Amino acid sequence: MRLTDQEHSAIVAVLKRHFGDDAxxxxxxxxxxxxxRGGDIDLLVETPLNDPDEIVEAKLAALVxxxxxxxxxxxDLVIQRPDGLHLPIHRIAHxxxxxx
Length: 100
What we know:
Blueprint: H1 5-19, E1 24-28, E2 41-46, H2 52-70, E3 75-80, H3 88-96, E4 98-99
């Protein structure tokens, strides 16, 4: 996994603060591969939040705080609601990713 300890800690703390302590956070994509170089930070958050307005607010606030804590990096934040659709990107994250 190609995250520094500081990035890892910040991501978990920020996303749990905004999406709830029960949120499950997955890192997937190129950052999971230790041999790869560069790449954005692809994250999937399984959140207990179900209200779309709450989720949008949480996502925007979390991204702002992440940029402040770990610097301006390309971060893709995918949200999976408990009652939402299960999209192919969710399956890919579960099959290829690691939980943080």
